Amino acid sequence: MRVLCSSTLIGEFFVIGFAGLVAMKDDTLAMSTVWWVCGIAMVLSVLLCGMITRPGGVQLGWALQIALIASGFVVPIMFFLGAVFAALWWASVHYGRRIDTIKADWAARQGSAGPDAA
């Protein structure tokens, strides 16, 4: 699960950065505000890569997905991109857990077969 979720989060890191560049074009927003918000979201996406397997890591990832969708009120294309990344996040969590279960089952079968069962 960690690899799939981390890949999604790193993709979001870049999307957040590019959304910040687009948001800078809005004259009603202060550049410092845009970069503080984007910077915090970008740092959070990188930190979450290491927190995925810890308690609350997946829930924080969902909070980031909601924030990404909500950023569509500032940069309208983010409604679409946020929804895409939320779907990718769901798939990463869902299929990542399935892969982890299959790997654990396979490792248990290999361990119980013994060294002579090749």
Describe the protein:
It contains 4 helices and no strands. It has helices at 2-23, 31-51, 57-70, 77-113. The protein is elongated and about 70 Å long. The mean pLDDT is 92.
Summarize the structure.
By secondary structure, the protein is mainly α.
Write a concise keyword list for the protein shown above:
0% strand, mainly alpha, 118 residues
Reconstruct the topology from this structure:
Elements: H1 2-23, H2 31-51, H3 57-70, H4 77-113
Helix pairs in contact: 1-2, 1-4, 2-3, 3-4
How do the helices and strands follow one another from N- to C-terminus? HHHH
Number of helices: 4
Average pLDDT value? Answer: 92
Distance between the termini: 29 Å
Instruction: State the shape.
Output: elongated
Low-confidence stretches: none
